[in-house]
Automatic annotation (TrEMBL):
It comes from Streptomyces lydicamycinicus. Signal peptide: none annotated. Its EC number is 3.4.21.89. Belongs to the peptidase S26 family. GO terms for biological process: signal peptide processing. GO terms for cellular component: plasma membrane. The chain crosses the membrane at residues 20-41, 213-233. This is Signal peptidase I.
């Protein structure tokens, strides 16, 4: 700020600079705290204990999962769910089929098919077939068919094919949809929706508000630090001029 701005007062002895500094801190607090509250109401943090979703999510990684209703889930989503048949513990898997779908593996090219259409799955671990063991299942209405991205090391719907629901879980079992990786730092980022499911009826889901939430928190922190730092800097400059 210029020296004229620093010395201009508002009639109560406060300089324009100090007024703007206080305003920056106030706005920063609103953005910072508002972003945290918004995030706390929208997301749940989870730690993925196994490598069944690698390389998309490594074992021990921390993810942010958006609180959603099971009816909002689309093919390709990575979800957090809990089902008594699967052990009644929170689990993280990818949805590859929804009610009415016929899911099968594998084609001669080693690909998964949904309703006889091959699906591109670039997120899979390794370059082999989409599943080391062939399978097929018809997903009942209101259910979801779930697989891990590390198909050689994932206990998923394939293990439960002989259950009454052909390995699927009800939509109501879903607690949240994974939207971003939060830890480790090298993997932080928004989870990309797989384009391989985009052409199916219903398409793919849209990312949650994790990016605007992050922007609000970061912008708030910058304004708070910048506004708070202005006062001492202005006083130091004033002493030097004096």
């Amino acid at each position: 700020m210029s020296s004229s701005t620093e010395h201009r007062t508002d009639g109560r002895g406060r300089t324009t600079g100090s007024v703007l500094s206080g305003l920056a801190v106030a706005v920063g607090c609103v953005l910072f705290l508002g972003g945290f509250v918004w995030g706390a109401l929208t997301y749940r943090p989870y730690t993925v204990p196994t490598d069944s979703m690698s390389p998309t999510i490594a074992a021990g990684a921390r993810v942010l999962a958006e609180r959603v209703d099971g009816s909002e889930i689309r093919r390709g989503d990575i979800v957090v769910f809990k089902d008594d048949v699967w052990g009644d513990l929170p689990m993280v898997k990818r949805v590859v089929g929804i009610g009415g779908d016929k899911v099968a593996c594998c084609t001669k090219q080693g690909r998964l098919t949904v309703n006889a259409k091959p699906v591109e799955e670039p997120y899979l671990q390794g370059s082999g077939p989409a599943s080391p063991v062939g399978f097929k299942a018809k997903v009942p209405a209101g259910q979801l068919f779930l697989l891990g991205d590390h198909r050689n090391d994932s206990l998923d719907s394939r293990v439960h094919l002989t259950d009454g629901d052909h390995g699927s879980v009800p939509r109501s079992a879903v607690n949240a949809r994974v939207d971003a990786r939060a830890w480790p730092l090298g993997s932080v980022g928004v989870m990309q929706r797989p384009a391989g499911f985009a052409a199916f009826p219903g398409g793919i889901s849209q990312p949650g508000p994790v990016q605007p939430i992050t922007l609000a928190v970061v912008a708030g922190a910058v304004l708070i630090l910048g506004g708070a730092a202005y006062g001492p800097l202005a006083r130091r400059r004033a002493r030097k001029r004096g």
